[in-house]
Write a structure and sequence with these properties.
The chain is an alpha/beta fold. The chain has a single domain, classed as Glutathione S-transferase Yfyf (Class Pi), Chain A, domain 2 (Up-down Bundle). Helix content is 56%, strand content 11%. It contains nine helices and five strands. It has a five-stranded mixed β-sheet with strand order 4-3-1-2-5, covered by helices on one side. Helix 1 links the parallel strand 1 and strand 2.
Amino acid sequence: MLTLYSYPPLFGVADNNGYGLKVYAFLRLAGVPFKHEHIFDASSAPRGQLPYIVDDGETIGDSNAIMAHAKRKYGVTIDDALTSAERDTDLLVTRLLDDLYWVMSYSRWKDELYWMQFRDALLREHPQLTEESLIAAKEFNAQRYHFQGIGRYEPDDAMARGLADLQVLAHLIPEIGFVHGPAPSTIDAGIYGFIANIYFYDIATPLKKFVDAHENLVRHCRAIHGMVTVGKRTEQHLQFHEP
């Protein structure tokens, strides 16, 4: 059976990282059976990044590569009816979510207005963590942000960038149904991975305030959340692997 390795849950979502939650939601929507292992330390993962999967001895990293593998191996058909224009839209939205990721991460680990609330939430939900390990992770992430570029922004400017991304999603998500029609497709799983980590995030960042104020984003998020959290098509393993 396929095993998904990703970061731990937080605030009621299966992974507190948008990429891992995207893959989780995709596998659930696609009906692919899998085990879910939560880990904190990504150093042994492909490219040192989560999520990754192990499937019949094959290890695959990168969320998009994981989903492409699952489509080929398990005959996933949720995107089969998409037009070439819709596939182009999906790629553009995927790249937008990559940009949004950095702002979301910045709001947790770097913005001092929210950092301590995030730290306390992690320690409360995962007491095996230590404050020292989280401070080390904060410093590591500060280096990542600097080299990526978002770390050179002032907090308000970083948030403005993320809000612009969310505004595009607010224009894209319909009032009813999903991005490409009445049934969800892969891009809906991707959007859910990030929006759920804002909407269910119990800290009032500007990103969360924006999502809360847009009924279509909330409806879409809650619809996918209901689909991927009900039922027993996945085996959850909550014994965390320590760094």
